[in-house]
Amino acid sequence: MNVTKAGSSGLYGLNATNATAGNAVKAALLSVMFNLQLGSDVLTDQGYPRTELILSGGVTKTPQLGQILADVFNAKVTLFDAAEEGTAWGAALMGAYRHSVLQADDADAADGDGHESWSDYLSRVDKGEANVEFYPDASRHEAYSEVYAKYKQLVKDVISEST
């Protein structure tokens, strides 16, 4: 399979009995979540495991997706009150942190103290109130894990066919 910018996508496993609009939408959403899981697995393998997911942006308009994410990732998922502004808030935090680093670097030239780490900086930031928290359901996680294993195999198959 030669995948290019003009490539196409497909939904694996749909048949005459389960090819409903709802199943097609859920398959598309799960493919995005599983792709995020692939990246998360790499980070975990490199010693950076996730302990929680925080939802922001457009996905927050459908909070039920938070439960599916919790079940897929087997992790707590938090949706904050101001989640729709999450991307802008994150950019503002990074800008404020960078500004503090530059100020600390200027001061460091004088006193040698250095600057605060990103983790320490985030631990001091008021994150607002958690509006909704989702916790994984073990049986649903197990079911999603089986589907995820099939997804990973399909990804490997597509990659091997395209090389």
From TrEMBL:
<keyword id="KW-0418">Kinase</keyword>
<dbReference type="InterPro" id="IPR050406">
    <property type="entry name" value="FGGY_Carb_Kinase"/>
</dbReference>
<feature type="domain" description="Carbohydrate kinase FGGY C-terminal">
    <location>
        <begin position="18"/>
        <end position="97"/>
    </location>
</feature>
<dbReference type="InterPro" id="IPR043129">
    <property type="entry name" value="ATPase_NBD"/>
</dbReference>
<dbReference type="GO" id="GO:0005975">
    <property type="term" value="P:carbohydrate metabolic process"/>
</dbReference>
<protein>
    <recommendedName>
        <fullName>Carbohydrate kinase FGGY C-terminal domain-containing protein</fullName>
    </recommendedName>
</protein>
<dbReference type="GO" id="GO:0016301">
    <property type="term" value="F:kinase activity"/>
</dbReference>
<dbReference type="Pfam" id="PF02782">
    <property type="entry name" value="FGGY_C"/>
</dbReference>
<keyword id="KW-0808">Transferase</keyword>
<dbReference type="InterPro" id="IPR018485">
    <property type="entry name" value="FGGY_C"/>
</dbReference>
